[in-house]
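Worked example 2:
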Amino acid sequence: MTAYVVAYLPEARAQLISLYNYILEEASPRTAKRFIDGIVEQCDRLDAFPFRGVSREDIRPGLRTMAFRRVVIAYFVETRRLEPGLVTIAGVFYGGQDYETILADDDAP
């Protein structure tokens, strides 16, 4: 049994789709699928090791990040006593995007 459930905010899902479409145009469907599958696999592995990323409390309370290739995955971990914890993927930022400013914004997820 996993200790945490991984969920994606709509913004993170939209970023994955946008990244897929970008890679699709620049490379191939196979390359785009493999890259996105790799990101999703990294996110899904947080169900067992949610605290492996770097704490970024300096940006937003509870925020953690981890790198995968040229991507920064931003997420929050919620520990619960009587049920599985929750890992919420807040964003998937590709190649130099200023995720710090985006996530520090009061309207950010």
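The first strand starts at residue 4 and ends at 8. The chain has a mean pLDDT of 92.
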